[in-house]
From TrEMBL:
It catalyses: prephenate + H(+) = 3-phenylpyruvate + CO2 + H2O. Pfam families: PDT (PF00800). It comes from Fontibacter flavus. It is an enzyme of class 4 (lyase). SUPFAM superfamilies: ACT-like, Periplasmic binding protein-like II. The lineage of its organism: Bacteria, Pseudomonadati, Bacteroidota, Cytophagia, Cytophagales. Pathway: Amino-acid biosynthesis; L-phenylalanine biosynthesis; phenylpyruvate from prephenate: step 1/1. Keywords: Amino-acid biosynthesis, Aromatic amino acid biosynthesis, Lyase, Phenylalanine biosynthesis. Its EC number is 4.2.1.51. This is prephenate dehydratase. The keyword Transport does not apply. Residues 192-268 form the ACT domain. PANTHER family: PREPHENATE DEHYDRATASE P PROTEIN, PREPHENATE DEHYDRATASE-RELATED.
Length: 271
């Protein structure tokens, strides 16, 4: 199984790939989410792992657009507990650190911790682990990384502060992406869809009550701009259901009421 991720060993994506596909899967690391989406679309990787939302920092909106543009299918999801740690080249104190680099989502999850250190500047980087690796390879002093304890272990860095995310219970939801939908033995109980509706008074309210009438349990609704129609919006919806037929009926009703529907995936809820 060839798995595409953004990041390198020690990153959270790498951990999810190992947890989902086992130690022997072949993992290719890319610098951007777009490269992951492209590699799955071109068949270079069988499956892509992509973070889509975090319980502190919220949705990674651009990733919804990537799934849409590259025509990928969501075949599953995975929730990983995330603990962030501040680490640096060994032998330094907190007072030696002038700058901290990490993945933008990781920085967002630790914003509160750094309020007590106004002299430390925060900078976006590719992924959590690659900063740790660079500090180690180039023996960089004065710069810290935010990453997992596993990354500190792999790259030989010293942890200056443990568990620095704003709330202790912190989760990132990852989605597993393939080029084509796959047949599963179990009936799906969750779906991710995109609905485009006309920008008219009450149209979103009508959509929501229609879904509720069909017993759809919405776990996510995210509006995204329709690029070629300024100030029009489409909605990415995640919904859970006990009855697959009712879900199919809901989709038909949305279309009958004038909505455009694109299904991104039907899979098993893992929450
Ligand atoms: O940089 C990493 O280690 C990642 O796997 C990326 C990522 C993300 O994209 O949200 C994954 C989980 C955490 O939320 C922080 C960063």
């Amino acid at each position: 199984m060839k798995v595409g991720i953004q990041g390198i060993p020690g990153s959270f994506h790498h951990q999810v790939a190992l947890n989902c596909f086992g130690e022997t899967c072949g993992i290719s690391g890319y610098r951007t989410f777009e490269e992951v989406a492209r590699s799955v679309n071109e068949g270079k990787d069988d499956v892509g792992v992509m973070a889509i939302e975090n319980s502190i920092a919220g949705a990674i909106l651009p990733n919804y657009e990537l799934i849409d543009r590259y025509g990928l299918t969501i075949i599953g999801e995975y929730y990983l507990p995330i603990s962030h740690n501040l680490m640096a080249f060994p032998g330094q104190q907190m007072s030696d650190i002038q700058q901290v680099k990490s993945h933008p989502m990781a920085l967002l999850q630790c914003k509160k911790f750094f309020e007590a250190y106004p002299l430390i500047s925060l900078m976006d980087d590719v992924d959590t682990a690659s900063v740790a690796k660079r500090i180690s390879d180039e023996k960089v002093k004065g710069i810290g990384a935010i990453a997992s304890t596993k990354a500190a272990e792999i790259y030989g860095l010293e942890i200056l502060a443990y568990d620095i995310q704003t709330v202790k219970d912190n989760f990132t939801r990852f989605i597993l992406l393939k080029k084509q939908p796959e047949k599963t033995s179990e009936m799906p109980d969750k779906a991710s869809i995109k609905v485009t509706i006309r920008n008219e008074k009450g149209s979103l309210a009508k959509l929501l009550s229609l879904l509720s009438d069909c017993d759809m349990d919405l776990s996510k609704i995210q509006s995204v701009p329709v690029m070629d129609k300024p100030w029009n919006y489409a909605f990415f919806l995640d919904m859970q259901f006990a009855d697959y037929d009712k879900y199919q009926e809901a989709l038909k009703k949305v279309v009958a009421s004038g909505g455009e529907v694109k299904v991104f995936g039907e899979y098993l809820n893992k929450k």
